[in-house]
Design goal:
single chain, alpha+beta, Chemotaxis protein chec, Surface presentation of antigens (SPOA), 2 domains, six-stranded antiparallel sheet, about 30% helix
């Protein structure tokens, strides 16, 4: 569980701390040190991106990192406007899919500048890029994203290859709904126009790369000592967390009418063989098999087999 307490002296600070469930199988919180390394990497990318736009559009451009967060892919898609330009990219070397998202109207301003215009663009709702406009925008983005490998050199080898552009986020399945994705949000300024741009990368790959890079990034002996102490404290705390363990028979299938007609005294025959062990479950995950028995005047079960693949 994660305890969220209010700041001392803040309104409502006398209330009980709020407790939110924390899913260890799908952690969506960045370690502070990892977040700092990512901020530096995305910051380098933003500076190079802005420089490329300024040089090619001949208009003062800047890209500023606003924040980085881990979300599920479903949460990321739900927060995007419709329509919007979603540039689907192949993330190398893993081959997974990344997404560069920005308003279509922003790309129209780029096209206007490229053709020598004053950057008025085209704000008509539902506007999509023509083949010629898409070719120009794609070439511009390829130059701007060519610095990905340089920006993330201290973390992992990373580059993006542009594949296609889609306009409805709900129809884009770049990852499974529950997959963790890393989302960097930027503020893009081109001339007098400001827009919000997001870059989505596979979360699992980025977090794994950061964990591997921990041994490469220079840290002081004191930082390593504190990290080891924090890891030991976490191990001891997790080992003391109470866990509900259940023992269950094999389920049976009945008709809805039978469920609705249940009354006191009715008998539901179980199909579980008397010679078969029962399932030992934690949070609906089978961890072991157990035989029915007794311990003094109380019922008990004896573990006869352990399911190793579900114990991680």
């Amino acid at each position: 569980m994660t305890v969220l307490d209010t700041a001392p002296g803040a309104p409502g600070s006398t209330r009980e701390p709020q407790v939110e469930p924390y899913d260890f199988r799908r952690p969506l919180t960045l370690v502070r040190e990892h977040a700092r390394h990512l901020e530096m990497a995305f910051g380098r990318l933003a500076r190079q991106f802005g420089t490329q736009l300024t040089a090619r559009l001949r208009a003062v451009s800047a890209l500023e990192l606003e924040h980085i967060a881990l979300h599920t892919y479903e949460e990321y898609i739900a927060g995007l406007p419709t329509p919007t330009a979603m540039v689907l990219c192949s993330v190398q070397p893993t081959g997974q899919t990344g997404v560069l998202q920005l308003p279509v109207a922003a790309t129209m301003v780029w096209v206007d500048y490229l053709f020598g215009g004053d950057g008025r663009g085209d704000d008509r709702p539902g506007r999509e890029l023509t083949d010629i406009e898409l070719t120009l925008v794609r070439e511009l983005l390829e130059h701007a994203l060519a610095d990905m490998e340089y920006a993330f050199a201290g973390i992992t080898r990373l580059s993006l290859d542009i594949r296609s552009v889609q306009y409805n986020p709900q129809f884009v399945q770049a990852a499974a709904a529950t997959d963790a994705v890393l989302v960097a949000t930027f503020r893009l300024r081109v001339g007098e126009r400001e827009d919000t741009l997001t870059l989505m990368l596979p979360g699992e790959h980025m977090v794994s790369a950061l964990q591997v890079a921990d041994g490469v990034v220079a840290t002081s002996p004191e930082d390593r000592r504190k990290a080891m102490a924090a890891q030991e404290d976490l191990t001891h705390a997790v080992a003391a967390v109470p866990v509900e363990v259940g023992v269950r028979f094999a389920p049976i299938t009945v008709q809805p009418r039978d469920v609705l007609a249940l009354a006191v005294g009715d008998v539901l025959p179980l199909t579980h063989p008397s010679t078969e062990p029962l399932d030992v479950v934690v949070d609906d995950v089978v961890l072991a098999k157990a035989a029915i028995g007794s311990h003094g005047p109380r019922l008990a079960c004896r573990v006869v087999a352990v399911t190793e693949e579900n114990r991680a």
